[in-house]
Amino acid sequence: TDTASESSYSLGRIKKSPSSLTNLSSSSGMASLSSVSGSLMSIYSADFGNVDVKGNIQFAIDYVEQLNELHIFICQCKDLAVADVKRQRSDPYVKTYLLPEKYKLGKRKTSVKKKTFNPVYNEILRYKIEKGLLKDQSLNISVWHNDTFGRNSFLGEVELDLGTWDWNDKANKQINWFPLKPRVEITFRRDLQGLSRCFVLFFTGKKTLSSGEVHIWVKECHDLPLLRGNRLNSFIKCTVLPDTSRKSRQKTRTVTKTTNPVFNHTMVYDGFRPEDLKEACIELTVWDHNKLANHFLGGLRIGLGTGKSYGTTVDWMDSTSDETALWEKMMTSPNTWVEDTLPLRML
């Protein structure tokens, strides 16, 4: 069943170190330790913040009436940032999306140019789309370093509002240089009523006098965004940071064909000492399941939001005031369920 039944087992004692939670045990009646596949909007497959963006990109766009196609001519880039500092190199490629429904028509990519900060492409990327639909679209062009191990680094982007674009202006059909810009925080174009109507954390010291368990009861989500057509097959993944190993990851079953999924799923993490609660953070992420790639919908980070864990500065300890309030309430209410409804956000 999908009710709140759970079990727990110990994988080892917690050690006093910046990665103290790497030995936390985890289990759930419906839990799976499989990782999320695919790279679209995956927070695990791309590095958005470690490279200082610089340089320019040269391109032109045009709509070809005879073909009903949007053509993006990617000419070249210059003075790109160094992505691989150790080897002092970048292997750049260019990727495009039509927003806001970036997954509806998919991405287009150029070839990868090795060992250069001034790549020349001279390639045309095409989208089959009616011209009238472009008035509601933005064109996102981004530059990336291609990493051998799959963790690609963001090198900058340009975004054009096609709703205000004058397709009859000959100057707009010419090849122009555009400065690359850093990625700003992405926000959904609709309000997300969050995870969940009754999201619950539970802490008890029943195992031993020195450690206990954190129970996370994920009940439901409301008003999740549709990324493709009218279908949404969602699931939730949980990780206890700073532990990012596979044994820290649990997930719910996938609930199909609804923007208001009900999960009623409990996840259990064993081996918590009271002092560890000040250093840890529960990261919950919501995904749309797809055969080719799972699409990120939003998430929560529930902790104290101090910016530090075991004395080390970390970017994931960034809980909002509402997320922090729920965590503090849980810490001061052992052996008691506490609950709240929280808005999803981009992480």
Automatic annotation (TrEMBL):
<keyword id="KW-0268">Exocytosis</keyword>
<dbReference type="GO" id="GO:0005886">
    <property type="term" value="C:plasma membrane"/>
</dbReference>
<dbReference type="GO" id="GO:0006887">
    <property type="term" value="P:exocytosis"/>
</dbReference>
<feature type="domain" description="C2">
    <location>
        <begin position="194"/>
        <end position="317"/>
    </location>
</feature>
<dbReference type="GO" id="GO:0042043">
    <property type="term" value="F:neurexin family protein binding"/>
</dbReference>
<dbReference type="InterPro" id="IPR000008">
    <property type="entry name" value="C2_dom"/>
</dbReference>
<feature type="domain" description="C2">
    <location>
        <begin position="53"/>
        <end position="178"/>
    </location>
</feature>
<protein>
    <recommendedName>
        <fullName>Synaptotagmin-like protein 2</fullName>
    </recommendedName>
</protein>
<dbReference type="Pfam" id="PF00168">
    <property type="entry name" value="C2"/>
</dbReference>
<dbReference type="InterPro" id="IPR043567">
    <property type="entry name" value="SYTL1-5_C2B"/>
</dbReference>
<keyword id="KW-0677">Repeat</keyword>
<dbReference type="InterPro" id="IPR035892">
    <property type="entry name" value="C2_domain_sf"/>
</dbReference>
<keyword id="KW-1003">Cell membrane</keyword>
<keyword id="KW-0472">Membrane</keyword>
<dbReference type="GO" id="GO:0070382">
    <property type="term" value="C:exocytic vesicle"/>
</dbReference>
